[in-house]
Amino acid sequence: MWELDFITQSDFENHVRSTIEKYGEKLESYDLKKFNKNIIDPVKLIFDKTVYRLSWDEIVKNEIFRQRDKSNNNDIGYFHQRIFQYIKNCRVPDNGKEGGWDVIYEASDGIELPDGGVVHKIYVEMKNKHNTMNSASAGKTFIKMQNQLLNDDDCACFLVEAIAKESQNIKWTTTVDKRKVSHKLIRRVSIDRFYSMVTGNEKAFYQICMALPETIEKVINNMSDSIVPHDTVLEEMILKSKEHQNNMYMESYMLAFGSYTGF
Questions:
Q1: Which domains are seen in the chain, by residue range?
Q2: Quick check: 225 pLDDT over 70?
Q3: For the whole prediction, is pTM greater than 0.90?
Q4: To 10 degrees, what angle do helices 233-241 and 248-257 make?
Q5: Distance, CA of 207 to CA of 217 (rounded, Å)
Q6: Does pLDDT of 44 surpass 80?
Q7: Burial (Cβ within 10 Å: 0-12, 13-18, ≥19) of residue 36
Q8: pLDDT by residue (tens digit) across 183-206?
Q9: What separation in angstroms does the CA of 263 have from each of 113, 249, 257, 258, 260?
Q10: Per-residue pLDDT averaged across 4-30, rounded?
Q11: What is the rounded CA–CA span in Å between residue 29 and residue 82?
């Protein structure tokens, strides 16, 4: 039984499917050539394997995962942002439109803020994790929010973080031109508090998280088999290692040092 009253099951499943499809080429299977495209560091590989007591299968899978994971955060950012297009009173502007905000939330009956006051619109800049902005980026974002307040005296601006230090909705204090700045209408908000505000359901984000594993599994099972990668790196390394008396360490070295003296 679908228990989320702020998004339909079909919309949620479609959004999960869209997020998985964003993984794109990262879902392609890895062969040895793709694995070594940017040249593996075999010395690090062997240190990691030995120190962490990993098998060849585990160390190769870990390296493939690391390579795939490098750009996956952008895809998860897509999930966190674009889901609000399905939630009442929220919209997700196209890239670069409406000031470049990630989400805009409007409520005709007003939005009450923790520090007092009521506004009717919230402009959102969304980040995956609390520590992903350096000081220059934070300053630029704060100035953007200040400008929005100057142009609209019936709004607030939120920096919404999926992975915040804790559940919070606080006045954002940062540094601009080496000076501490803050404003009660510019706020730093964890994503659970933002969901609670826009849906009226305190446990909305919790419910999203609880529904996610089963939904991802269901969506993947209904997609084509090609979405599940079949990596052949280890098999190819084992086969090639026969040229070196089945020495997998030597085969690892050959990934980067094949043209070096002695190899």
A1: 9-76+214-257 (no CATH), 91-210 (3.40.1560)
A2: no
A3: no
A4: 100
A5: 17
A6: yes
A7: middle
A8: 999 999 999 999 999 999 999 999
A9: 67, 12, 7, 6, 6
A10: 90
A11: 27
